[in-house]
Amino acid sequence: MSRTSIRTLDSTALLSLVSQLTDAIQQSITPSVLLEYCCAQLQTSEAWLFEQYHLWDECHFFNTPDSSFSETQSQQHISQHEFKPCHPHIAMAPTSNSASNYCSKLTFKLATRENLASIYLYLQFTIPQPQTLFTSMEFMLFLNIVRMYFSERASFKNNFFHSLNISEFYQDIVDNAPVMIYALDEQQRIVMWNKQCEQVFGWSKQELQQFEQPLKLFYPDKKYRDRILKQTAQNTGSKKLKEWNPLHRDGNMLTTLWAQLLLPDQTTLNFGIDITEQRKTEKILKTRASTDGLTQCFNRDEILHQLEQLLEESQNQQQLLPFCVFMLDLDHFKSINDTWGHLAGDESLIHFSQLLRSSRKQNMTVGRFGGEEFLLIMKVSSLDEAMEFDCTLRTTLQNHPLMYHDQTIKLNYSAGVVLIEQGCCNLTNLLTSVDQALYHAKKTGRGRTIQAEQHF
Fold first, then answer.
1. Contact, 77 vs 131, CB < 8 A?
2. Cα 412 from Cα 372, distance rounded (Å)
3. In 274-332, which residue ranges form alpha helices assigned H by DSSP?
4. Strand 256-262, strand 268-274: pairing
5. Is there a domain that residue 282 lies in?
6. Residues in CB range of 251: below 8 A, 6 or more apart
7. For 39-95, what is each residue's pLDDT tens digit?
8. N or C: which end of the chain has fewer CB within 10 A?
């Protein structure tokens, strides 16, 4: 879309523009892109389009990025001009009291087929153009191409909304559909909003139409909103549903699934379902499946899964290293059950797991391995740091014994610890090594932590 080098437009430049527009329109370009083609070839310093539909209260404004005109100013500009026919059914130009044979600012009015819409095209030329240019066959051809483009837009929009409003039956289908259905025009304004949308989001169509950018209400974060608009443009017509997290009117986050259909007039038709409660249920079930019911830390399957995943990732990502693994076993747990009962045993496990998790909240994962045994994964800089943590945990246990009814139960533990520096080990070898270290700790008097003989 390079600008012509001649000072005034000629038939060659206009025919080139007509050819470009014809090819581009076949690719379903937007009005903004069409305006870019016009600006590039017509040597304009400013240009804008105003599209006004007659059968329903709707209008659209398109301008160049450096335009000084706003939508309101364009409407005022149009109202201040008187238009006269300069070519039947194609264009109307403003009357001018100027005696000059050259024009630098002109506004054209194009009527679409069946008079569904009026299109106002404003052109401000960098170099004044001869008045004869605007009645030439080539310029009339250019205007006719523009008129045909907007006629197709108007016809499609009219047919689409007519099909929706042709009877109350079809309108009821849209309004009472069990899924959310809404439509956005190319300027991101709400043009359709069914009852399911009102129920899910808490906004009526009338309320949303008062906002210039209603999507901000649902996606206040600009980066997230832009990402959704980009996904919408890329996935229109795709069978794959996209999961988005809009906000309800009360500020609560929803979880929704959407499919989009891009219509020829650039209106985006959206079909969605609310899966917020489903996702909440899935989260609860996932938590239950991975959590030990008594201590509320990870269960055996989950802690082993996380350890195995960490081992696999550490082989490729050295920044995950080093880390250590503790296997801890409450000392004299059977005696607690025999002396104070199994409920006291349960309370001791809960008390121990709570102190364990609160002793270091970052870079640490805790799981109940089975019975009175716990597995702890912790990112450390060295084995000395791991042993310092062990010392702190023992001090915490001494200072915070379990109070069971009127009884004070002091807890202690034995442990094995292994350091993973290279990440070159499998889960079985690691567990065997740390389990042997725990065994030696219990055999040599309990209440101590033994380092595994082998590091990985």
1. no
2. 11
3. 276-290, 300-314
4. antiparallel
5. no
6. none
7. 888 878 889 999 988 777 788 899 988 888 998 998 888 888 777 665 544 455 554
8. N
**Coil, strand or helix at 439:** helix
Q: What is the DSSP letter of 4?
A: P
Whether residues 262 and 358 share a domain: the answer is no
Structure tokens given for 233: 């443009």
144 by Cβ neighbours in 10 Å (0-12 / 13-18 / 19+) ranks as: middle
Q: Is 235 helix (H, G, I), strand (E, B) or coil?
A: helix
CB 376 within 8 A of CB 360: no
- DSSP output for 126-139: EEEEEGGGGGSHHH
- The residue ranges of DSSP E strands in 331-363, in sequence order, are none
Q: What is the pTM of this model?
A: 0.55
Token output for 102: 């050259």
Residue 153: domain span: 11-162
Q: What are phi and psi of 44, to 5 degrees?
A: -100, 145
Under 8 Å between Cβ of 219 and 226:
no
Give me the amino acid identity at 186.
Answer: E
In sequence order, what are the beta bridge partners of 31? none
C-alpha dist (Å) from residue 231 to 16, 28, 107, 375, 440: 34, 19, 37, 42, 58
Place of tokens 């791991």: 386
Looking at the structure, do residues 156 and 221 belong to the same domain, yes or no? no
Contact 313/320 with Cβ under 8 angstroms? yes
- State how far the Cα of 79 lies from the Cα of 89, in Å rounded to an integer: 20
Pairing of strands 364-370, 268-274: unpaired
Pair 270, 183: CB distance under 8 Å: yes
pLDDT at 117: 85
Residue closest to 111 by CA, chosen among 52, 63, 33: 52
| Residues 383/290, Cβ–Cβ less than 8 Å | no
Q: What is the CATH number of the domain that holds 303?
A: 3.30.70.270
In a domain, 375, yes or no: yes
Indicate whether 304 and 231 sit together in one domain: no
| Contact predicate 137/86, CB 8 Å | no
In a domain, 261, yes or no: yes
* CA dist list (Å): 241 to 221, 263, 271, 426: 22, 18, 10, 38
Give me Rg for the CA atoms of the chain: 36
Burial class (CB in 10 A: 0-12, 13-18, 19+), 217: middle
Give the bridge partners for 258, in sequence order: 242, 272
Return the ∠ at Cα 307 (arms to 303 and 308), rounded to 5°. 115
- The string of pLDDT tens digits covering residues 295-349 is 999 999 999 999 999 998 888 776 677 899 999 999 999 999 999 999 999 999 9
